Amino acid sequence: MSQVVDELWELQDLMSQLAEKERKLNEKPTDFAEVDAEYSESLAEIEGLEARLETASKEKRAVESDLQDCQELLKKYQGQLMQVKNQQQYAAAWKEIDGSRKQVKEYEDTFLRHLSDSEEMQKQIDEKREEANPLKEKWEESYKRWQGSLGELRKEAERLKKSVSEREQKIPKNVLSQFQRVAKQRQGFGMTKIVNDSCSLCRFRMRSQAMQQLMRGELITCEGCHRYCYFEKVS
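Above: the chain sequence. Below: its structure as tokens.
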């Protein structure tokens, strides 16, 4: 079992190295981060305006639909005016027509206001997009430089991925499965080193029996964090 413990410790070391390489691969350099923040802010502003424009457009379409309905109703009342038979019916018909005309005017004014607002927002969006074009070019150039500088780091990460895969093949599946499960739950660490009879990661103090098992090379887990334990023997 001592060999499995050593294989697990080597695997943990490789995974830690790989995690560090991947962190560096994803860490934005200062010059790119500044350009990225500026460009992202510009895009967010455009997206905000587009969202407002979409809302205004929906409201405009709703008002347009109400306007059409009201215009149809006005036509109906105007047609009924020709069929009245007395002064009372005539006055009532004109009252309905007058009310509908006012409603039509209100809808027309609202529609025109929404139309004007939409046109103004579209103008702002076009201007912001025009302003964003140089930022986009600057972002693409900076991103290309950053990615171009990562060649050796990517190669090293790929080498470590291969080494991790090869090391995993040497470990029993049930042991590897538990190691991977705990590593996923514990920030990438499925194994811990025991120093001065305590877990170096969760500080849980090992029982004397557990320490004896470790010294014999047996595979045990920390009672505190459930990681596999590694004890480096002094030659």
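The mean pLDDT is 93.
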